[in-house]
What we know:
- Helix content is 34%, strand content 24%.
- It contains eight helices and ten strands.
- Strand 6 (214-223) and strand 7 (228-232) form a beta hairpin.
Amino acid sequence: IRGRYRSRTIENLVKEAQWLCDGGVRELILIAQDTSYYGNDIYGKPALPKLLEELCKIDKLKWIRVLYCYPERITDELIDTIANEDKIVKYLDLPLQHCNKDLLKVMNRKGSYEELSTLIGKLRNKIPDITLRSTFITGFPGETEKQFEELSKFVDEIKFNRMGCFPYSKEENTPAAKLPDQIDEDIKLRRAEIITEQQQFIMEQYAEDMLGDEVEVLVEGYDRYAECYFGRTAGDCPEVDGNVFFTASEVKPAVGSFVKVKITDSLGIDPVGEMI
């Protein structure tokens, strides 16, 4: 359905990005089926770092966000580029799906518990304030209780800043649908609920740890029911992550503007504060 990877040229992408920024856009999201593969088909080598460097030269651009980078293609060059360029938000989405080596192999993915832990350690060492997001699947055909417990331990140890977890969905005519040892629906759901509850606690702790911090927020609107404004930090991807809710006593912030907010409380996983 997806077809082969097809990269657009750096010049073409920069031209579109400049056009968007001239029209008022301040945040760009680079996204593909595998964004870290970018450039291999037309340049013969990974070109995401070079593309990012060229996009950072656009004056009106404020934030560049990178989604869907597969762990085996995250190079030292890419890590250094993200770390050194101020316009690239320190946020990375790693679509891991699982941490067990055998299950990942069946999924046609690479990696293991140890390899993924090492990569994440490197990312956090080189980019100390990075926000890491991932998604996981429970109940993939053949997943044993032991393999699930390994995933649960991985989530607890890594403590992703943002994370989603979904029970495996059997899609007709896919290779996985034909695999033996399909997991019972109740077991898949129970496992997904366990991981989700783990992550809920982790994210609530992250929100509590922000108390007293002053953060930059992109204003997205006003919630008339809660009677406050809301927006996103650099660590929040639109539509998939949470919001910061805040009051503004003197000046009404415009949608699309960037403001400073002091965090004074939290509402579950969402920080609450007041505009400075």
